[in-house]
Amino acid sequence: xxxxxxxxxxxxxxxxxxxxxxxxxxxxxxxxxxxxxxxxxxxxxxxxxxxxxxxxxxxxxxxxxxxxxxxxxxxxxxxxxxxxxxxxxxxxxxxxxxxxxxxxxxxxxxxxxxxxxxxxxxxxxxxxxxxxxxxxxxxxxxxxxxxxxxxxxxxxxxxxxxxxxxxxxxxxxxxxxxxxxxxxxxxxxxxxxxxx
Length: 196
Ligand SMILES: [Mn+2]
What we know:
Blueprint: E1 6-11, E2 14-15, E3 18-19, E4 22-27, H1 34-52, H2 60-77, H3 85-90, E5 127-130, E6 133-135, E7 157-159, E8 162-167, E9 170-173, H4 182-194
Antiparallel strand pairs: 1-4, 2-3, 5-8, 6-7, 8-9
Helix pairs in contact: 1-2
The structure holds manganese (II) ion.
Manganese (II) ion is lined by residues 21, 104, 129, 131, 161.
């Protein structure tokens, strides 16, 4: 891999028959470029707002929808999506950048069995992932009415995934000890690139 590239690691580890599922995106060479950093900040904000939405009584849809709103707002601020905010969300004009659900059940399987509807609300004791991302493939094709993506954004793909336990009054981030702040990721990446 090259110095200016991003390394996305999505790791599912097992212990005592239970599974974790954690994703972090590292800047090789120890520093995010301006574009990489801008996208990272949006994904991190989306993840933090989605995490706040994981609590008893809310559903899977709630935290997904919050994440989508933050991602769309950020992509619009960068000019990568244009138009009426509500329309971009409703008509899913963001799909070329974000094409998956924001999380899934976690437990005996990495993608554990369970249902994903608005009616089924979260309950204490459940474990799930929160993992928004933005993916700008080199050949990304804009949907109707959306702009071409300038070259400097292409090839950037970022996801941040944590594992959460739903508690009586909110949630506990089980993967909280894995760094995700920009400064921490840059420090980790810098020190590991020096070792090679
Ligand atoms: Mn996952």
